Amino acid sequence: MSSAADAPGPVVLRTAGLTKSFRGLVALREHAIELREGEILGVIGPNGSGKSTFFNLITGFSRPDSGAIEFRGRSIVGVGTARIVGLGIARTFQGSRLFGSLSVAENILAAAQLRHPVGPVAAVLRGPRYRAHAREAETIAARLLNLMGLASQADRPAVDLPYGDQRRLEIARALATEPTLLLLDEPAAGLNSGETRALTALIRRIRDLHGVTVVVVEHDMDLIMNLCERIQVLATGEVICVGSPEAVRSHPRVREAYLGHA
Ligand SMILES: Nc1ncnc2c1ncn2[C@@H]1O[C@H](COP(=O)(O)OP(=O)(O)OP(=O)(O)O)[C@@H](O)[C@H]1O
After folding, report:
1. What's the first-to-final CA gap in the chain, in angstroms?
2. Which atom of ligand 1 is nearest to the CA of 53?
């Protein structure tokens, strides 16, 4: 799949004037972005600049004070987290959200089952639709185990995996809901430089194979600069610039935000 820069596809996500405060402190102010299908956008900024707030607003974990969020042309302001997953937005979190005692395969299966939530009656009756959805979830899980290089670990409890594999499992769980927009919150945190390079290649491969649009929040500049076609920089809740890695690297306000001088 070509990058957004080569051939602009349809707009997947659009925010405008998106603002959120916590007890008088503006965590995100007038945020705006337009993301096209298949694009990989990096969001960077010093601690407390509003990156997680941005993810929380898009995924329905918190509600904006004002502004618009549109996913594939429809407003998702006020839509709950489960419904947002169903619409095709998935995220990973800064800290681990794995089910440690479940196996690697079961972790992915549990996420795949979120695509068709099952009520208590259907779970007991196990009718044809239930069985079809269960088979579908197993197919998705098998495919993701291979894609993410976790097939040989499928039966191990997630808690026993090396840290780098756990991070990949988090991404596999997000992908199991078959999103069209994937939000990754610090996927390289705690990885060494070799693991970070491998993860960079893997995220690009996921985009190329599945055509997903990716937003990655990350402090690791190697990953951001090598992976992202565009980067948006936040500082104290405001967008200070958006552009190519080269443009962002040399932008005076970015240098100021990070280094304290232009
Ligand atoms: N639920 C909350 N209640 C109160 N204040 C909050 C809440 N969430 C975020 N904030 C504040 O909003 C600001 C932006 O926080 P946010 O977590 O979005 O930053 P961040 O860029 O993700 O930081 P980091 O890189 O450290 O994860 C910070 O000042 C933070 O303390």
Report:
1. 37
2. 18
Q: What is the pLDDT of residues 227-243, one digit of tens each?
A: 999 999 999 999 999 99
24 versus 260: the higher-pLDDT residue is 24
Cross-strand partners of 217? 43, 185
- pLDDT-based confidence at 96, cuts 50/70/90? confident
Q: Which pTM value belongs to this model?
A: 0.89
* CA 68/CA 70 separation, integer angstroms: 6
Give 59-82 pLDDT, tens digit per residue.
999 999 999 999 999 999 999 998
- Measured in Å, residue 83 CA sits from the centre of ligand 1 at 24
pLDDT tops 80 at residue 4: no
Per-residue burial over 189-213, b if 16 or more Cβ lie within 10 Å, else e, is eebeeebbeebbebbeebbeebebb
* β pairing state of 40-44 and 213-217: parallel
With a cut of 90, say whether residue 122 has pLDDT above it.
Answer: no
Task: Choose the residue to mutate in 25, 62, 216 for probing ligand 1, maximizing ligand atoms within 8 Å of C-beta.
Answer: 25
Q: Cα separation of 212 and 227, whole Å?
A: 14
Buried b vs exposed e over 113-129: b needs ≥16 C-beta within 10 Å? Answer: bbeeebeeeeeeeeeee
Residue of the CA atom closest to atom 2 of ligand 1: 22
Ligand 1 binding pocket mutation candidate from 44, 47, 53, 62 (most atoms within 8 A of CB): 53
**What ipTM goes with this model?**
0.95
Query: For residues 243 and 251, is the Cβ–Cβ distance under 8 A?
Result: yes
22 lines ligand 1 (CB under 6 A): yes
